[in-house]
Design a protein that fits this description.
- The protein is of the alpha+beta class and about 160 residues long.
- Helices cover about 30% and strands about 25% of the residues.
- β3, α3 and β4 form a beta-alpha-beta unit.
- The N and C termini lie far apart (about 35 Å).
- The N terminus is likely disordered.
- Bound molecules: coenzyme A (COA).
Length: about 160
């Protein structure tokens, strides 16, 4: 069974949402479910916005795999705003260029070098080199956007009112 096929003309790491690929959405979910603690509505966002957005084409998922395991992923949104919604590399694969490659592919799909990106305070340091590589511009810190006590750092743009990711 083919579980990962490049779309014709698409970057090689862009996820193809043909039915045979869909079980991988569960693996992505399991890899990211730790984000519940950071984003209280993460489950609703993933299954209610990301997956339908992948089907409609408003969102795209970029993944790298090693064997059967996910090495890293980027979720991007190309709609009323161009956004890198999630950037994540499996801990044991960090520092190998996975995120750099996936972000590069996502920027090509988004058609911009300056997408909106936000990261929680607790991960800001780990994104520093990656964001410098791409020349992302730090804009401001937003307190209480996703959780009362949380700080979200905003790059390249401005967060919209409300909790839409
Ligand atoms: C930030 C993150 C995506 C980087 O992924 P990665 O695949 O390791 O990135 P790359 O290998 O492409 O490395 C990019 C640069 O960042 C550096 N880097 C990677 N992880 C780092 C860390 N934890 N601290 C400091 N620098 C780090 C790398 O050394 C590299 O620098 P170099 O070009 O000088 O070698 C990864 O650390 C991660 O997933 N962190 C958790 C993020 C998270 O919680 N995401 C979900 C919410 S958005």
């Amino acid at each position: 069974m083919t579980d990962y096929v490049a779309l014709p003309g698409a970057p090689p790491r862009q996820f193809d949402l043909r039915p045979a690929s869909r079980p991988e959405l569960g693996e992505v979910w399991r890899s990211l479910s730790f984000l519940h603690g950071t984003y209280p509505e993460f489950r609703v966002w993933y299954w209610g916005s990301v997956v339908p957005g992948l089907i409609s084409g408003e969102r795209s998922l970029f993944i790298e795999k090693q064997g059967n395991h996910l090495s890293g992923l980027v979720i991007a949104k190309r709609a009323d705003e161009q956004k890198l919604c999630t950037i994540w590399t499996r801990p044991e694969m960090r520092g190998c260029g996975v995120a750099t490659r996936l972000v590069r592919d996502a920027l090509e799909w988004l058609g911009t070098d300056r997408p909106l990106v936000t990261v929680p305070d607790e991960t800001l340091k780990s994104f520093d080199k990656l964001f410098r590589t791409f020349g992302f511009e730090y804009r401001y810190a937003n307190v209480g956007y996703y959780r009362e006590d949380s700080i979200e750092h905003v790059f390249n743009g401005v967060l919209r009112p409300g909790r839409v990711c």
